[in-house]
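Protocol step 6 of 9: fold each sequence in the batch and record its C-alpha cells directly after the sequence line. For illustration, a two-sequence batch is reproduced in full.

Sequence one:
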Amino acid sequence: MTGFQDMPLSTFAEALASGAPTPGGGCAAALSGAMAASLAAMVARTTAASEKFAGRADEMNRVVDEADALRSELLGLVDADAAAFAQVMAAFRLPKETPQEQAARSEAIQAGYKAAVEPPLRLCTQSVRVLELALQVAEEGNPNAVSDAGVAALLAAAALDGGALNVEINLGSIRDEAFRTTRGARARAAQAEGRALRDQALTAVRAKLG
C-alpha cells in the first residue's frame, strides 16, 4: 500500500479533506515540518552556491545535509502518525464479550494510545531542530532568500504546535500518570524552546527585509 508521503500533493490534500480519519492533523503537521526542512535546505543550498558567500559554503552544506535528513524523517512521520491511529482503532474493534476479552481490549487500547503519542512527540523535538536551522539560514544565509527562511520558521513552528496538540489529545486517554507526566513535559519544553527560536528567526528575517 502506498503511504501518504508517497502521494501526489493534490491527492494527499484530497485525502486530508475527506471524511476519513486519516490523514489528519498529525499527518498535516508532519508534512509542514518536512516542508520547513526543505526550505531551510533550499536557502542553505542557495547560499553555498553563491560566490559571494564562498566562506560560508562548508557550513551551509552541513545545514543542507541535516535539513535533508530531517525532511526524510518528518515525511516518515506522516505515515507513522496514521499507522499509530490505526493501531488505536484496531484496539477498539477487539472483542469485549468476556471479562478476559475486556481486559485484553483495555490493555491494547492503552498500548495504542501510548504508541500514538510517539510520532507527534518526535515531531515536536525534530521541529525544534528545524527551527534552529531556519534561524541559522535566516542569520547567515543569502539575503535574497531570507523570506524563505522566515517561511521555514513559521512552518516548523506550526509543525511543533500541531505535534504538541496531538500529544496532548492522546495523553488525555492514558491512565499511566508517569507516562503522561514525562511525555507532556517533553512536548511543553519543546514548544517553549521552539517559540523562542521562531521569534529569533523572524526578528533576523525582518532585520534583513528592512
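Sequence two, same batch, same settings:
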Amino acid sequence: MGRQTSATITEHKTRLDGSVADFVCEALLVEPGKRAVVRYVSDREAHVGDLVLASGTVTIGHFWADRSYNVYHWTVDGRTVAYYASLVDDTTITAARIAYTDLTVDVLVKPSGAVMILDEDDLPDDLAPKRRIAIAKAMEAIIADPRGLIREIERESAAAQRGG
C-alpha cells in the first residue's frame, strides 16, 4: 500500500537538450520505486494543441517507474478538460522527488477518446535508438486503447483525491 501524505514532492523534468524544470506539487499518493500521483494548480494560462487551459486548472499527474509515459489529468471545476501523456524515459520515484527525461513527444487525449500527437517534429535527428523505441512503445500503448487509459486515470485520480 502506498504512503499517502499532504506533503509536497518535486517533479524534476530533464529535457533532451539538458535543460531542467522543477515543479513543486502536492503529493497525493507516493509508492517509491513504483508510482506517484500528484496535484498541481496552474498559476497562468497555457495553450496545448487546440486547448486553452485557464489559470487555476487543476492537474493530477500520474507517474510510473515502469511506463514510458506520464499522464496529466487536467480538470476545471471537477470536469475533465483533457489527458496529456508526456512520453518519458528513466523515471525514478522517491518520497521527495519524481525525476524523468522528457522525450519531447506528447499525446493529447480528449474525453471523447480522440488522440492528437504533439511535437513529434521537434525530435532531434540524432536521437538515440533506445529513446526512439521508448517513444514508439509509449505511443502504441496510448493509441491502442485511449478509452482504457481514460478509465484508469479517472479511477486513479478520484481515488488519490479521496485519499484512498
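Proceed to step 7 once all outputs are recorded. Observation for sequence two: The radius of gyration is 15 Å.
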